[in-house]
Amino acid sequence: MQCTMHSIPISSIQEGESVPAPSSFIHSDDQRLSSLPVVKGKEPVIGFSSTSLSESNAPVQINGEPLILKNKAPRWHEQLQCWCLNFRGRVTVASVKNFQLVAAADPSCHVSPAEQEKVILQFGKIGKDIFTMDYQYPLSAFQAFAICLTSFDTKPACE
């Protein structure tokens, strides 16, 4: 999975940085948030974009590159003889829907390796039809939930 967060600059994950806040709010049904289309391929690619709510509905511009989230690479577990992610006890059932997202930063962005390994969003199964979602700054609850919902779309590798 790869998510491009057009309203969140990559600099927001650097220490001491923050995400720009919208300058106005929706006041009617005529003003809507827009999102980039979901592109189907080998893996889901998700784009979220917040909009400026002026009459022109022009997208909010951020300074610098957008934050890109990608699947965290699993580690080989010798005893289990399989690839695993450490959910720190929060996910208890193996599922193709389980994932952890970390920042995917180009070396020119000066994001430390520690920041690139930090899990920003994790989602996983804990029971029959029961899942858990953990997220942190710079994602909002709405953005995290929307990303997690995409894991319920069909999985091409499992069909």
Structural topology:
Layout: E1 2-9, E2 45-48, E3 66-71, E4 75-77, E5 82-84, E6 99-103, H1 113-117, E7 121-127, E8 130-135, H2 141-149
Parallel strand pairs: 1-2
Antiparallel strand pairs: 1-3, 3-6, 4-5, 6-7, 7-8
Describe the fold and architecture.
The chain has one domain. It is 9% helix and 26% strand. The protein contains 2 helices and 8 strands, in the order ββββββαββα. The strands form 2 sheets. The protein has a 6-stranded mixed β-sheet with strand order 2-1-3-6-7-8. A two-stranded antiparallel sheet has the order 4-5. A hairpin with a 2-residue loop joins strand 7 (121-127) and strand 8. The longest helix has 9 residues, at 141-149. Mean pLDDT is 75; it is low at 24-42 and 49-61. Belongs to the TUB family. Pfam families: Tub. This is Tubby-like F-box protein.
Mean pLDDT: 75
Order of strands across the widest beta sheet? Answer: 2-1-3-6-7-8
The low-confidence parts are 24-42, 49-61
The secondary-structure element order is EEEEEEHEEH
Classify the helix fraction into a percent range: under 10%
Helices, by number, come to: 2
**Class derived from helix and strand content:** mainly beta
Cα-to-Cα separation, first versus last residue: 17 Å
Number of domains: 1
Question: Based on DSSP secondary structure assignment, what is the total number of beta strands?
Answer: 8
Summarize the main sheet.
6 strands, mixed
Percent strand: 25-35%
CA-atom Rg in angstroms:
17 Å
The rough form would be described as: globular
Family: Belongs to the TUB family.
Organism: Musa balbisiana
Domain Tubby C-terminal: 1-154
Protein name: Tubby-like F-box protein
